[in-house]
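Case study 2.
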Amino acid sequence: MIHSRGAQGSTAEVVWTQILQGIGGGIAAITSQVGAQASVPHVDVAMVTAVVKLLFREVGGAVGNAISGAIWTNQTVPDRLAVHLPTLNETERAQIFSSISLIRDTYPEAYSDVMKSLLITATCISILPLVLSLAMPGWHLGDTQNAVDHVDLAEDANGVGDFDDGGSVLLGGGGVSYLA
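Prediction:
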């Protein structure tokens, strides 16, 4: 991935890395969501789903964007442009810096250097979720709704599920009724 994201990467390399990232992202998203949903009582599934989606995906993506933005803007690109274009003055380099496509297409060496820094950082950070995934419990769901309620799916499919206080919920054509 590090090689193919540089300015010299071919279209096939970029497409292949996108496919691999999509597969990995899909596997990570589903396994984290199912693991979180299986580890809480049924009444908390909506909350834990929102937390997983909001906290891990959205906030994590925002943090990742902030890190990459900091690497891109805080002297990495300007420094690389200064190294690869020593004959240009600061104003000319600032004009080039304002356009990512101009940097990528016209000054590929500077672009490749910065992308290498970004991808090495991303690869190092991605080790953390991989290590944390090894600490996830191996929930066996079988025919139960989740790993903590022990409600059989066959029982739940018949319309009756147990509550902690001994009551039951009846799902019928007229809506939901709680039976104490």
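Residues 150-180 form one domain.
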